[in-house]
What does this fold into?
Amino acid sequence: MIEVDGSFGEGGGQILRTLLTFSALTGTPFRLNNIRGNRPKPGLQRSHLSAVNAVASVCDASVKGNVLGSRTLEFRPSRIKEPLKLVIDVGTAGSATLILQSLIPLMIGRKITVTIKGGTDVPKSPTSDYMSCVFMGIMERVGIKGEIGVVRRGYYPRGGGEVIASDFRGGGEFSILRMGDVKKVVVMSHVTWLPVEIAKREAKAASEELSNFPVEVKIKEEKGTGKGTATLVYLEGESVIGADSLGAIGKRAEEVGKEAASHVLSDYRTGGAVDSFMGDMLMVYASLFGGEYKGSSLTCHAKTNAQVIKMFGVDLEINGVSPFTVKVRRPLVSGIN
It folds into this structure.
């Protein structure tokens, strides 16, 4: 059994999510102590508990400590089940996309459909548009296809959104080291139960930041269980680099658009081939299939993710900081549960 202190590195939910994924994939049990030890409110919150219970359902795990507020978790996986239709109701605005991060690697090549009810566009997590456009764009370059659909949006604090993920398949050794020439730039702004003019202002501000590129603007009026808005900006070349920004009370629409565009440009200018968010997410897939990539900035999340992944015997090498490269020479493909 692997024993982990949950206060190391970024000391948050990323440690738990990565442990769950690799435990289920390899059949390796773990015990996590001091869960989210570096957070103001440590222990399992609803979104983390939902991730634990979801992965446990997929791999028929025996679990101890899966209660709200728990600071210790013991997880003993069995075989991954299929066919399976899993419905997860977080009950709050807990991030549906972060829960998907733990589940998608388990779904590849299996008849598993997941429906998650919770927050689709909430702070400190990728938005559903980021997952559909940027994450899936990178997955295509890994040889993975799949579907991520938004039934309705859910925002903080109410939640109530719904995302469905299914039909994930493929995957193989990959090399994503160059962004190359930018062939496409998209600004995607949406509103739910707010004036569409807000989305147009966000998109205009983002486009002005991206004045050196021809920009394709997409404005959407969405369904959801509360008011909200967000902007996603992404650049597409040999790879995809993106960033999003959420609206908030007192935050001007122009600030939302400018924030997303500025973050994308900052990552792009490092010479990396993937953005700072994908820099840690892609590490999982390099570990599964073998591969290499160049990230824009080595974040604390990415460094922590690497440490957790190495606990499962993955030969993972990181060089540099901004940009940085990741190379996996001994992937898990032959050792997947």
